[in-house]
Design goal:
The chain is an alpha/beta fold. Helix content is 39%, strand content 14%. The chain has a six-stranded mixed beta sheet, with helices on both faces. Strands 2-3 form a two-stranded antiparallel sheet. Helix 5 crosses helix 9. The chain is elongated and about 100 Å long. The chain starts with a helix and ends in an 8-residue tail after the last strand.
């Protein structure tokens, strides 16, 4: 049976068009897999009175020391921590007991929260980890700094990627009685740290909480960049939060002899003598560079590569 020349010609034309389309799609996928990620917004809270990026810049530029005494408003047993019989006699001390570690980087009034603004009842707010509350506020601020209306993102494919560690607040809530029990699970679950932002803003992209210890925020940004390039989300909030509701980290590292006597890390220095602990929250708004340009968002920085944790 002889196939008409016209049908052969048409089949060849369709095949060539399909090959051309596949080449274009492959090229687009390859470009997307390596596209730079733009940072279009940011917000933060850190020790030393830092309430935003401008404050953080001033702290760094002026050489301000954000480390200070243990907080007196968290119910910590400071007599036990610092020692009633002078430096070195408490439970937060160096291995040799030569001097007490009595300082760290602490946020100013981390319990402050405008619950009504986020339509959260006072009782639920009280049962909610301060890490969730701070992340919610700072995520809102980061979007506003990017020129994006947070309230307009409901239903969008916006992702939330958050590095966090258990603060110890859930243990305090568990002692709070029957009135807080209904909110204990959502208030203290690590997964809800990112989910709280997604739920409150109505976001429908990935909501991922990451705990890889000190690299958690690094990994969160890596996962956010991957998700943006893969098309899993069109916008991403990425960062991390730490609030120490209990002095557990100081007690644990005291037992290991790992705390710096003055509460300050000294990386890459011959004077390095242990670790110091601090709190804070930082969130950046990430977008594919091509999308940022198309939407007219100001690009503050470009993330050209990222990394994951491996201990």
């Amino acid at each position: 049976m002889t196939v008409p020349v016209e049908k052969l010609t048409e089949a060849l034309r369709v095949s060539l068009l399909a090959n051309s389309r596949l080449r274009e799609e492959n090229r687009a996928l390859a470009d997307a897999a390596h596209e730079p990620i733009a940072l279009v917004g940011m917000a933060c809270r850190f020790p030393g009175g830092v309430r935003g990026p401008d404050d953080l810049w001033r702290l760094v530029a002026d050489g301000v020391d954000g480390v200070g005494p243990f907080p007196t408003d968290r119910g910590w047993d400071l007599d036990s921590l610092l020692g009633p019989d002078g430096p070195g006699s408490g439970t937060s001390a160096t291995a040799e007991g030569a001097s007490a570690t009595a300082e760290g980087g602490f946020l100013d009034e981390p319990g402050e929260f405008d619950a009504a603004f986020f339509h959260i009842s006072p009782r639920e707010a009280l049962a909610t980890d301060p890490q969730q509350r701070l992340l919610l506020e700072v995520s809102w601020e980061a979007l506003e700094r990017a020129g994006i209306d947070p309230g307009a993102l409901a239903g969008s494919a916006t992702g939330v990627f958050t590095g966090a560690y258990q603060s110890g607040y859930a243990e305090l809530v568990a002692r709070g009685g029957e009135q807080l029990r209904a909110h204990q699970i959502t208030g203290g679950a690590g997964s809800v740290i990112s989910g709280r932002v997604s739920y409150t803003l109505g976001l429908e992209g990935p909501a991922v909480s990451v705990d890889t210890a000190c690299s958690s925020s690094l990994v969160a940004m890596h996962l956010a960049a991957q998700a943006l390039r893969a098309g899993e989300c069109t916008l991403a909030l990425a960062g991390g939060v730490t609030v120490m509701a209990s002095p557990g980290m100081f007690l644990g590292f005291t037992a290991q002899g790992g705390l710096a006597p003055d509460g300050r890390c000294k990386p890459f220095s011959d004077d390095a003598d242990g670790t110091g602990w601090a709190e804070g929250v930082g969130v950046v708004v990430l977008e594919r560079l091509s999308d940022a340009r198309r939407h007219g968002h100001e690009v503050w920085a470009v993330l050209r590569s990222s990394a994951v944790n491996q201990d």
